Amino acid sequence: MLTFARSQPINNNRFTMQYSNALWNPCSQMKDYETFKPLHVIGASGSYIHLKNGQKIIDAISSWWCKSLGHNDPRLKKALLEQVDRFEHVILANTVNDTILSLSEKLTQLTSTLNKVFYASDGSCAVEIAMKMSLHARKLMGQAAKQHFIALENAYHGETAAALSVSDLGLYRKDYESLLFTPHYISSLPYVCGTHDPLWQDCSLHWEAIEKSLEPFIENTTAIILEPIVQGAGGMKIYSQDFLRRLRIWTKQRDIHLIADEIMTGFGRTGKMLACEHAGIEPDFLCLSKGLTSGWLPLSAMLTSQKIYDLFYDDYSAGKAFLHSHTYTGNALAASVALEVLKIFSEENIVFQSERLGKEMLASMYDIADQTRKIHNVRGIGAIVAADIICDGPKRRRGFEVFQKAVERGALLRPLGNTIYWLPPLNMTIETLAKLKNMTRDALY
Ligand SMILES: Cc1ncc(COP(=O)(O)O)c(C=O)c1O
Predict the structure, then answer these.
(1) For site-directed labelling of 95, which of 54, 60, 109, 245 has its Cα 20 to 30 A away?
(2) Do the bridges between strand 221-226 and strand 257-261 make them parallel or antiparallel, or are there none, so unpaired?
(3) Once rounded to an integer, what is the mean pLDDT over residues 320-347?
């Protein structure tokens, strides 16, 4: 998710020789591990990761934003083991099973309009499915001109080719331009620092300019794709719910699909089950992953409407089937955990817990800003807070320094460049948050 540029080693956790073994870690400059070796994990429970050196560190980023119910939840373990006893994986083409049927039913209850669920394993794949389905639907509707996508500036939708194409983070896409297409990006977004920001309720001035900028693209666009309300990898930037609401009306009136990538924001992260709820909207395509299994197993889901489904429904000879597939589509082990996640969400009111924890998180981050004077632009919604580290030079990797210091103090923060953020398990206790606050504050000095 984030590459760290070079910096001075600041601890004694240092390698003197070239870091070398068979593993190539994701999203890493491997040479960085010479100065700060990877944390050797031997266990994890609740909000903590247990390291081989005896340290227990707080997982302040929910292990890339997926461990919404924390690590090693006993109910999820039980659900998984029960499914292991039944069967682990069977091809999902030409078969069904109780687990996947129940999960699909439950997922359709998340919205009032999306009643068809298509599965994959990773978030990026769910995004690709939504994009392909939107394009394919245009072909089936005889709308051949509608071939293009619109995305938001600063967006991130994953690492596979189409998902990366609609992303706007040069760090991840610049070396692969020849493989990618470039959508139109909506710019000058009405960013806010929280729901109390006046722009949250009314972004009419921004909207006027945005609406005008979209006019040339109406005829050729099949879909607008966006991360509703919070752009994660782009720096935990929050934008106005009024913008999302207006954009949804605009797309509906012009027969342009809306793809909501809720891979990070879904499952209670923003204080609502889905971030789209902040704007009172529902998209044409909804992508879910991460919190779907609370980070136990890779699973993603793409939901759409009966209207889209019906376009593909015909005799085989009509050649209209959506023939996309992945080997592990709808994996039964992952599905059994996801089903239990949904039960826990409703029985333990996790969305409410997220909102309550988030209020404390935001207050704590403001305190840190006041006490240290080392961060600014504090922002937050639900159980997400972020702030930008004040840097004395544009090239200084303060984020990487803070990361190392925080680990030594007992917290896994993984700043996005020089933006620090907390995105912890939604059920993290207030006591653990208090510890995280002290560790983060100390790491900033
Ligand atoms: C909004 C969003 N979309 C898509 C993805 C890609 O998901 P995955 O890494 O599971 O492919 C991510 C990953 O962080 C994400 O935050």
Answers:
(1) 109
(2) parallel
(3) 98
Q: Is the pLDDT of residue 178 over 50?
A: yes
More confident residue, 1 or 228: 228
Residue found under tokens 């309720």: 201
CB atoms within 10 A of CB 230: 25
- The tokens describing 155, both together, are 């967006």
List, for residues 60-114, the tens digit of each pLDDT value: 999 999 999 999 999 999 999 999 999 999 999 999 999 999 999 999 999 999 9
Residue nearest to atom 16 of ligand 1 (CA): 264
CB of 266 closer than 6 angstroms to any ligand 1 atom: no
> Ligand 1 mean position to 5 CA, how many Å?
22
Q: Return the closest-CA partner of residue 382 out of 423, 348, 345, 414.
A: 423
Of the candidates 425, 422, 426, 416, the one whose C-alpha atom is nearest the C-alpha of residue 436 is: 422
Q: Domains, the chain, ranges and CATH?
A: 32-72+351-444 (3.90.1150.10), 74-347 (3.40.640.10)
Give the pairing type, strands 285-288 and 375-381: unpaired
Nearest to 386 by CA among 415, 409, 357: 415
Task: Give the position, in ligand 1's atom list, of the atom nearest the Cα of 289.
Answer: 10
Taking only the tens place, the pLDDT of each residue in 282-308 is 999 999 999 999 999 999 999 999 999
CA neighbours closer than 13 Å in the CB half-sphere of residue 112: 3
Residue 418 pLDDT > 50: yes
Identify which of 263, 274, 421 to mutate to test ligand 1's pocket (most ligand atoms within 8 A of the CB).
263
Which residue CA neighbors atom 7 of ligand 1 most closely?
123
272 neighbors 83 (Cβ within 8 angstroms): no
Confidence of residue 122 (pLDDT cuts 50, 70, 90): very high
By C-alpha distance, which of 420, 412, 437 is closest to 41? 412
